[in-house]
Amino acid sequence: EPSMTCEVCEGAEDMPEPLQQCTAWLRAYFCEPATTETLPVPAFHQPVLQRDSFTKQVLWTLLRDVKFGEAVSYKQLAELAGNSRAARAVGGAMRSNPIPIIIPCHRVIRSSGASGNYSGGQLLKEWLLSHEKLQQEKL
Q1: Facing residues of 109 across strands?
Q2: Is there a contact between 115 and 109 (Cβ–Cβ < 8 Å)?
Q3: Which of 6, 22, 31, 105 is the catalytic position?
Q4: How far apart are CA 18 and CA 34, in angstroms?
Q5: Are 102 and 49 in contact (CB under 8 A)?
Q6: Which of the residues 69, 80, 105, 126 has an alpha carbon 20 to 30 A from that of 29?
Q7: Per DSSP, what are the bridge partners of residue 108?
Q8: Counting Cβ atoms within 10 Å, is residue 58 exposed (0-12), middle (13-18) or buried (19+)?
Q9: Is 22 a catalytic residue?
Q10: 130-135, long-range: CB within 8 Å, 24+ apart, which pairs?
Q11: Continuous segment of H or E residues that includes residue 80
């Protein structure tokens, strides 16, 4: 919506640094998407992102390689993460994503072009993809 405004709650400057980074990143994502690439990735202290695993590899690959406004299939993401036969495991990694907007699992779709599943629900996934497409067209 063109009339959409972005507000950060009062006292945001009193938040811990990682929370300030998340707030800045989310504000940028929804209001100034071109700036997300220049912001630091918030510190993630989630166990799934700390241990060596294919899930961690997939999530970091998604964050690093699939840019705003792009989409990738489960199979393509498996290939990018180093195991072209692990498309189903990519689906499992998406289900265990602890921060689904910042690590953009909504950008992972089926090879057929259908949007596929999303932990936030089908409508939210489609809205996020539409938001990115609309913002990309503005740039």
Answers
A1: 73
A2: yes
A3: 105
A4: 21
A5: no
A6: 80
A7: 72
A8: buried
A9: no
A10: 131/30, 132/33, 132/68, 132/69, 132/107, 133/69, 135/33, 135/68, 135/69
A11: helix 74-80
Cα 4 to Cα 27, 124, 126, 135, distances in angstroms? 12, 17, 18, 13
pLDDT in tens, 43-84: 776 666 667 789 889 998 999 999 999 999 999 999 999 999
Count of C-beta atoms within a 10 Å radius of residue 88: 11
Tokens of 69: 């406004």
End-to-end, the C-alpha distance of the chain in Å comes to 16
Q: How far apart are CA 115 and CA 108, in angstroms?
A: 8
pLDDT tens digits, 89-123: 999 999 988 888 889 999 999 999 999 889 889 99
CA distances from residue 15 to 9, 20, 49 in whole angstroms, order as listed: 10, 6, 23
Task: Give the residue from 78, 101, 100, 98 showing the smallest Cα distance to 90.
Answer: 78
Sequence-separated (6 or more) residues with CB below 8 Å from residue 25 = 36, 39, 41, 42, 102
